[in-house]
Amino acid sequence: MAKKVLMTGFEPFGGDQVNPALEAIRQLDGKTVEGVQIVVQKVPTVFYESVQTAIEAIEHHQPDVVICVGQAGGRTQITPERVAINVDDARIPDNKQQQPVDTPVAAGGPAAYWSTLPIKSIVRRLRDAGIPSSVSNSAGTFVCNHLFYGVMHYLDKNAKSIPAGFIHIPYIPSQTVFNQAPSLSLDLIVKALETAAVISANQTEDIVDVGGALH
Ligand code: PCA
Description:
5 helices; alpha/beta; six-stranded mixed β-sheet; binds pyroglutamic acid; Aminopeptidase
């Protein structure tokens, strides 16, 4: 049977009109690529509700892989995240005006969860395809990290040992017309996410490759 990959994408937030994560996953909805079926779910940029929406989508679709996608404005590359941490510390309010500071995502949960996606393989494959990519060692402390942690915690608590993780993507050009910030075209982002879905569905072991950063 074809492997199924669930991709989630956030609604726009912080005054932005679009979120490239949502724009990109919309283009992948229902697609089958190299025998891998992609299903998608829009999630609100809201603490807790985002996790609830993703959990409902996991229970509905019963995917083999979960990849959450969010915008990291200012980044220059496609960045699979290495780790989710158990803290919310919001620099700006979410889309429901919640702004938690120094509170755990899950009280009593472990400090962190590692991504279980083959992040080094994804980076290597994207680079081979000429797409800028590197591993990120922090998903921040806003709703993206919150969703990443919440999904990993849910999978752990429910003994669902499927690969899951988070990929941050840069702005698309339409968001940077009036401000000096890096962007990648939507086409390239879609290609990158499609590639990440296929690798994650087909590869259980990650490769060993240098992916560290000094800061
Ligand atoms: N990026 C934000 C939340 C939603 C999104 O796309 C973040 O990085 O936390």
